[in-house]
Amino acid sequence: MTHARALVAAAVLLMVPGIAMGKTIKVPRCITTTINNCFNDSLFHRDYAASYNTIDSALAAAVGGDRIYIQSGTYTAPPGGWKIKVPLEIFGDGTGDPYIGLSFISATLLTPASNNDRVIVLDDSLIKANGKGHLNHIYIHDLTIGQTINPTAQPNSDGIYCLTSATVSPPGVAQVSLRLARLRIANMGNDGIHLEGVNAGAAALQGVSIEDCTSHFNKGRGLYILNAQMFRLDGGIYSNNGEEGIKVASCSAPQLSTFECGANQTNHPNGDAPLANLHLEGNLAFRVTGGHFEDWSAGALVRDAVGITGGLGGYIGSCTFGIATAANATTARGIHIWYPYANNTGIVIGPNSWSYVPTMIEVEDTPRTTSCVVEPQIMYDYNPLNFTPKIIVPETVDRGHVVVAPVSGGSRTMAGVALPLLSTARRDSMTAAGSGGTRREGLVIYNATSHRLTHWDGNRWLEGIGGIVGSAFDDTATAAIGVTTLLSSPTVGMYRVTVTGLTATTMNKSQIIRLNWTDEGSARSVDLPTLGSGAGSLVQETVPIHITGGSLTFDTRASSGTMSSGSFVLRIRVEALP
How much is the pTM? Predict the structure, then answer.
């Protein structure tokens, strides 16, 4: 088809009756500083085909797929808020810059009818009445929503509100593909954004995207989303709200990236509510990256920047955490995984940067919180006069936690990897990988029953014998050695002591080597074979002993008289037996 024919075909298509095309509906400017209220349509002439003087009439005229452009100015919603019942794009002239003289002149400002009213409501009643379809593909952007006054807390005062219907025929009605972008929502009596699916299944929210929005100074939460699938938050600021900055609950695979969340919980200046700036509750496979959290501490109350309750699989990493004033940071906690009434499992805390945070990470010691992994963290700065930063992960057996631990709380040097503490019973319950199990050749575990590293060689579990750090002796002597301590207050158990002695130069007296210890309340000792006086004489002996208290010591003495010439080398190693 030639270019000319294509143009003709397109023109013909546009003239065919019954084919609807999405249109842009324009709402003229309405400035409350000069006009007390937006006039009704009948008081104005329409200058063009798709223009209305009120948002109410524009919404009434709009059909699915239309766009409503609201010019800069201030618009007051009807009681209960503006109801969006069909797929629409609604946008304005931007949020303006209210921080310069509190001016909204250049912004499109949408305000509620009263302090206890919503502004925008996503209403699926029309879909419910028809019993089919979805309230989908709604795009709201470039608006300021809220009030210019400091509100009181009100249960129905939300900036943007959605609650899906639970009972429809056929079932399966949901809010699909909702997109919010470049919005500023402030001073609402409840939540800035409140999006709620009735359940996490057929009536869940699906495909919700929030981009570069600011929701702050609200009496409730900056953002609350419940029962959503494929929720994505990208950018934005959620700060200075009365409760949590962001609460994400019962969502499947929520993704939060590159946002700020700080100085929330302002309803609780006296520390009467242990909330989190970001609260993740009951989510599956969540991911949080690039978040910036600051100024969440409040006096003596231990508050969390991020609180995770009932998380099943998730990741938090590449985030920054900081308290502006070190003196206020003594009780602040960064990431807290807790809640004894629901499972927390499979949560990975990746690398993050910390500044003046005393407790960077805390994992609660409960049987329902398992298999958490803490990767290396970086302490950017802290005040050692006030606190030493710490990571708290329980060392309880069969919890399955893995920690890459630093040398100390404030150190930037990693010390090593702490493996999960696995009991012998749990170890022996593992089945072969070939039959779908997890036991495979080369698997290394830490057996908390025997306190040993253990590995599977393909046929059996092998356990090493560990030399006790600080118990070794290695020296060259030119005289008898007095009583020397190898172990002080050792753990009750079996030990293996290996002694190697070599006469370096001819001695005038041979040497007797004696071990001393306590077993069952009685002092015990054993003399090893005598080390001969001639150069090159050798003694090598391994002695098993059982210790129940006291100390393990050794000494040497001449076979008779006093050693006055020559030298010998003595090496002793103590190993704890399984």
Answer: 0.83
